[in-house]
Structures are given as structure tokens and as C-alpha cells.
Design brief:
about 25% helix, EC 1.11.1.6, globular, ten-stranded antiparallel β-sheet, Cytochrome C Oxidase, Chain J, binds protoporphyrin IX containing FE, iron, 10 strands, Catalase, 12 helices, Catalase_AS, Catalase HpII,  Chain A, domain 1
Length: about 475
Amino acid sequence: MDKKLTTAFGAPVPDNQNVKTAGKRGPMLLENAWFIEKLAHFDREVIPERRMHAKGSGAFGRFTVTHDISEFTKAKLFESVGKETEVFVRFSTVAGERGAADAERDIRGFAIKFYTEQGNWDLVGNNTPVFFLKDPLKFPDLNHAVKRDPYTNMRSANNNWDFWTLSPEALHQITMTMGDRGIPKTYRHMDGFGSHTYSFISKDDKRYWVKFHFKTQQGIQNLSDKEAAEIIANDRESHQADLLNSIDKGDFPKWTLYVQLMEETAAGDCPFNPFDLTKVWPHKDYPLIQVGELELNRNPDNYFAEVEQAAFAPTTIVPGIGFSPDKMLQGRLFSYGDSQRYRLGVNHSHIPVNAPKCPFHSYHRDGQMRTDGNAGRTIGYEPNTQSQWQEQPDFSEPPLQIDGDADAYSHKDDDHYSQAGDLFRLMGSDEQQRLFANTAASVGGADRHIQIRHIQNCMKADVAYGEGLAKVLGISADEL
Ligand code: HEM
């Protein structure tokens, strides 16, 4: 192998230890071209981190179909049992910055890029089936509330819980986050969810609403607050190390994919809004249907190239898979590409980890960091009579019936509590006690009136939830 150091433009570097100076003790010369190149590149090494989900770990692998669901979707990746599709997965924590500790109480990102023969499909999910919000207009506020305070530059329990408790739709997600699953032991020991309702389009153009669930084959394992604190004291990269080391030693993590399905027209009869991201679809009414297996078996060779520069976007879908009227999903359809054009540039789809593995032909041209041949002499417009790439109407989706008046509908009076209460009642009494203790440790740092507001929200889910928490926080019934 050639071990000779060169400049970025290929010329030999004769001295990489000493700059050229005017005289032995004199100042540097401007003609230190190699020094200037080296420092100027170094000065630009940092790119913006993801606004949320900044700390993450990634790995490559494959998805294999084990059960036939081709009746419900024409997506080629699901066309036959045994079919394999290459994937890249990035896991993340949400609120912390790029250098944050892994073992924090937080939801985890679970983003999957399927490199299908019909283009990439990004399923950008979390380790929880629901989310804090149901309206995307509130998303920047959620993040400003959980991230650093503008004055103190510290995370603030007051800001966090002030916003959460004034957004009672968050209670279901808060109950999960403060419960046992709030700190997964590692990325391998947690489930993944598409969370939103998406759609499947069948070969005969029938639409089904669908939810995606990835169940870990490693088993769910979590950390208590105490165990997490001990880990963080010695190791901020516990999830990264676990994923990297297991794959390096050939212990490949696996998840089983299931879907829940609903007929298109059944959405109208559903007792809850099936497009509400704060709700789950009960498994007894919408049973899990097994689909396939996700395995991670190859570590990226270079973290920056393949993990930091990875760009997942809910807009990146393939024929046979579509969106839904979920407002949160609709909001995300704008945000990811927009963020990535800022974070990575307009041509980020060309970065190898993001590029499709099938042929791709668009008329996008030019822009910063266009490093391929820019489609050479190919004309740059459509329609054309030069036999260049034509639109493909065969892949259009069936129309979706919509009704009602355009308005900014308030969700203030929705039922925010039943499913949070169901989750609370599903927990054994030990787990309920841990939920109270974890919540008290977190909300305990906020003002008393905020603690009381949270207890009042919990009461509406289940009186025992509110009372148990009030007891641990030392708040009497008279104060509520
Ligand atoms: C990352 C916006 C809700 C999962 C991001 C990023 C943005 C964003 C701008 C950074 C993207 C990048 O720079 O590459 C939003 C908005 C939301 C929303 C506006 C709601 C309106 C959600 C929900 C989920 C989710 C509900 C899960 C179900 C993720 C994940 C990442 C991410 C996993 C990291 C992807 C990666 O590993 O690169 N989000 N998000 N987000 N978001 Fe969201």
C-alpha cells in the first residue's frame, strides 16, 4: 500500500512537522501552503448537528421477509418470502447534544433506511409507539422546553414540565418515558416503532392504514435511574460501545417486524382517531401480523461518513407505501429534507450512505457539492421529445377521500387520558412505584404548581396514578 503523504491535490508533503519561518526564531511565512490547507480544512470539520437526535449510533444489515403480506402492499421489498433488502439503521437519543451521555432517560430514535430496488424507504421511528404531541406546530416549543434554557444554558426541569403539563396530550408518552422503558439498557434491548399511521397500497390499488412494530429478539432490558447514573459516571458511550462491540464479535442484533392493519374505510368508524400520534391501536382489535426480520451485521467503517452524514426523511418512500392524514407526519414531511439541506447541503442524496442502490434519474442539477458528473450532457427538463426520463403515472396513488371545512381545529377537549390510564393499569404495582419514583425525581426539580398540574393530569388518567405520585412528592390532597 502507498504510504506517502500528499496534499489534497496529490503533491508530496515534504514536512508535516515544521512550518517554514523567516529565520530560525522568526515568524511564519504566508507561503506555508500545506499549513494553510491543513488548518483551513480542520477549521471546517464540524457540521451542524441534528437539531434533535444529535447523538446516535448506526449499523448496516438486512431485512428479510418471513411472512407474505403482498396482498396488502405492492412494495417490492415485501413481494415474496425470503426476499432480502439491505438496510442502514441509526439509533439515537433525542434531547442531548452530539456529545451527550447515552444512558439518559429519554425516548430513543430508531431510523431505518431500506435500500430497495424501487428506491430508498426511510422509516424514521422511535422506541415508543406514541409521541408527546399531536400537532406539529408545537414541535419547536417541545424541543425548546426540553433543551437548554436560554439564560442558564442548563436543562431545566421547570421548562420541561411546564410545557409537558400544559400539553396534556403528552401524558401517554410521559408515562412511557417515566416508566421502566424510559432508559433502555442498550439500543439492542428495545423495540422500534414507525409510530405514525402510514398506508399500504395493494396491487389492485386498495389502501390500508398500517402501523409498524419492530420487536427486539434480544429481549427488553432497561436501566433504573441509579444504574444509569453509575454507567454515565464512567461511560458516556455505553450504547455506542454495546452496538459496536456486539457486531464486531458477530453477535448480530435482530428484531421481528410486525404490522397492524386497518381497512381504509374503517378509519371513520374507529372510536378514536387512528391518525392521532398520541394513541396506540389496541392489539386485540388490530392484531400484530408478522412480516420479517431485521438484522444488523456490519459496523460502518467511518462514523462521520456513514452515521453523521446519514439523512433519513419520512418523505423517502417507495410505491406501495404511503402517508396518512396524521398531522404530525404531515409536518415531518416538510422538516427533515429542509433540515438536511441546511445540515448537509442540497446534494445530500448523493452521499453514499444516502444514495439509492437502484438506478436513479432526476433532473435536479448543480448546487453545492455536486460531485458526480451532474448528468453530463443529458438535457435537464421534462416533458421532452428526446426520449429522456419520463414521469411514471403507473405509480400514482389512488385518490384519498377527504371531507370537512378547512380550519385550525383545537384538540384541547380530546380524550388525552384513557390510554395513559390503560398503560398505568397494565403496570404491576412494583412498576407503578418505580413510575412514581422516576417521575418524582424528574418533576421534583420543577415548581410546586407544575408538580400539582402534573398530578391533576395523572388523576384524570387514573386516580391511583395521581394519588401515588402525590404521596411520593409529599403533596397533600388539599393542595390538589
Ligand atoms: C430527527 C423534526 C417528530 C423521529 C429529526 C430532525 C428534524 C426532526 C428536523 C433532524 C433531521 C436531520 O437533520 O437529519 C421533527 C418534527 C417532528 C418530529 C418537525 C414533529 C412535527 C418525530 C417523531 C419521531 C421522530 C414523531 C418518531 C416517531 C426522529 C428520528 C430522528 C429525527 C429517529 C433522527 C434520524 C436520524 O437518525 O438521523 N426530527 N421530528 N421525530 N426525528 Fe423527528
